[in-house]
């Protein structure tokens, strides 16, 4: 009997602010800008891309393109998206750094 699988999308799991924060924290630890852009796209899709577009003043198409693994959002875009998601960017020292 063949194994049956179901499609899985991270968007379905990003249903609380805590899960969103943990997801983005894990992505930030990887240090990959493309992964961060794609993860922000995941969060924006979970929250509703149309709503994010309205709140940021950017088009849905621009957001989909910018918040993809091939996207490279400008800092202003990143900050606008984070604000619309109810999140903020913080900085912490790297453990063991001089």
TrEMBL record:
Pfam families: dnstrm_HI1420. Gene3D superfamilies: lambda repressor-like DNA-binding domains. SUPFAM superfamilies: lambda repressor-like DNA-binding domains. It comes from the Bacteria. This is Addiction module antidote protein. It comes from Methylobacterium ajmalii.
């Amino acid at each position: 009997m063949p194994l049956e699988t179901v499609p899985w999308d991270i968007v379905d799991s990003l249903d609380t602010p805590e899960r969103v924060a943990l997801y983005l924290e894990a992505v930030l630890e990887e240090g990959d800008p493309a992964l961060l852009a794609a993860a922000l796209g995941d969060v924006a899709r979970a929250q509703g891309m149309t709503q994010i577009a309205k709140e940021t003043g950017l088009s849905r198409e621009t957001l989909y393109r910018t918040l993809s693994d091939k996207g490279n959002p400008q800092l202003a875009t990143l900050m606008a998206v984070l604000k619309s998601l109810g999140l903020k960017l913080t900085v912490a020292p790297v453990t063991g750094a001089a």
